[in-house]
Design brief:
It is a single chain. This protein has one domain. Helix content is 11%, strand content 43%. A hairpin with a 2-residue loop joins strand 3 and strand 4. The longest helix is centred in the first third of the chain and has 18 residues.
Length: 169
């Protein structure tokens, strides 16, 4: 009887594990590799005259003047929660001792995005338009296959925008 209960428990566990996994979100490939796909974020940096313009201790910081417009909604800077989950948080400020950045996201790293458009609104009235495309799939060998394309103001670019001096790029 004990052996029968153990076998039933094992069978139920296997069935629950199989139906509990979404094929698109599965991070274990057929060869036993485990993948942790990082979320997608737009990263902003700004400096002028050697000053980090996102440093809260700098009197001339511009954090309150920056926003990102995405799908018709404006996002202002929110405090850093320090959580590492692929959860959309809007626009957040991160302080990494020597570097201060604004991060807009997070978006799932295991999804496709077509013409995802962000408008970065700078306090001097200038705007940067970022268009992001991404395809994600699991390859035959079990490795992720990711193709990304980003344009900034109509030119090939990256999901990192860095203004080295205010008023120019």
């Amino acid at each position: 009887m004990k052996r029968l209960i153990s076998r039933i428990f094992a069978a139920v566990s296997i069935v629950l594990a199989a139906v509990g996994c979404d094929k698109e979100e599965n991070s274990v490939s057929g060869d036993g590799k485990i993948w942790d796909i990082a979320p997608v974020n737009l990263i902003l940096r700004a400096s002028e005259g050697g000053h980090d313009l996102f440093d809260l201790s700098y009197e001339g910081n511009i954090i309150d003047g920056v926003s990102v417009t995405y799908e018709g909604k404006d996002y202002k800077v929110e405090p850093d929660t320090k959580a590492w989950l692929a959860v959309f948080k809007g626009l957040q400020h991160y302080d990494f001792s020597e570097m201060h950045i604004l991060v807009f996201g997070e978006f799932s790293g295991t999804k496709d995005y077509k013409d995802m458009t962000f408008v970065v609104n700078w306090p001097d009235g200038k705007k940067d338009v970022v268009v992001y495309n991404r395809t994600f799939k699991w390859g035959r060998n079990g490795d992720p296959v990711i193709k990304e394309q980003t344009s900034v103001n109509g030119k090939e670019g990256k999901m990192i925008i860095e203004r080295n001096s205010f008023g120019s790029y």
